[in-house]
Amino acid sequence: MTYCARTDPGLCSEEVYTRETPYPDGMLLDMHVHSCHSIDSMTDIGAIVRTWQKRRILSLVCDHDSIEGSRRVYGEIRRYEPDIPLLLAEEITTEEGEIIGAFLTEEIPPGLSAAETLDRIQDQGAVSIVPHPFCTFRSTAIRREVLQECIGRIDVVEGYNARSPVPEENEMAQAYARGCSKPVSVGSDAHIPVELGRTYARLPPFEGPKDFVRAVSAAEIVFQKTHPAVHSVSRMVKSAKRAVGDEQSSIRPRRRAALPEWPGIVKTLL
Ligand SMILES: [Fe+2]
Description:
- The chain is an alpha/beta fold.
- Helices cover about 30% and strands about 20% of the residues.
- The protein has 2 domains: about 20-220, TIM Barrel (Alpha-Beta Barrel); about 230-265, no CATH class.
- Helix 1 (about 45-55) runs parallel beside helix 2.
- It is globular and about 45 Å long.
- Bound molecules: fe (ii) ion.
């Protein structure tokens, strides 16, 4: 695995990859992205599709407890390029912390134990990824003793999370993965459009979920840490959705909305 420092420091570079197709020659994949189907994200489907159109960077869309965002993104992309694999994914809230399922065929409900969630992922022939395993900032990171119990059944450890505020926690994840001989993934954990296209893996060609794990272990990493201020935006989006409701995230309003629709409040600040 190779680490690459990007030379373009801008938030949203206009750099365009000119290759006709990212597949089967290989794939640029941001392995952790949220869409508006997550309670704390306001990134619309079109923004994720445009990142692929302009930059040839695909997104593993893993919304909190929903595969609908990934279904919509890949439905759109595959209309233009049917050879792109259908990468349905979800960041599943287990009783013991979050686990990402990739190459899913069906949504997995939240609230199961980590072991039951891994059973469901395996039953679908899908791939399990543990996101931000040593992050102390997020209360949703998997519990360490549970990670230790389950590591034999986990396919990939996220070693580069652009939203992790403490760099040492990413380094711990990389060292842990090395110690367990697990491949390391890289994700922006993007919740707002400006985070898209800054962090990704350059994967060699692969065929199906199991071969994907092999491809991740051979990937080249392009990583840019995100400014911690983005967490405030996510919290604001979450509060706004809870206050006024949001159909895409299946959030009912907490009270009769006295506020204008949340996108109007939030978008003006971005
Ligand atoms: Fe996430």
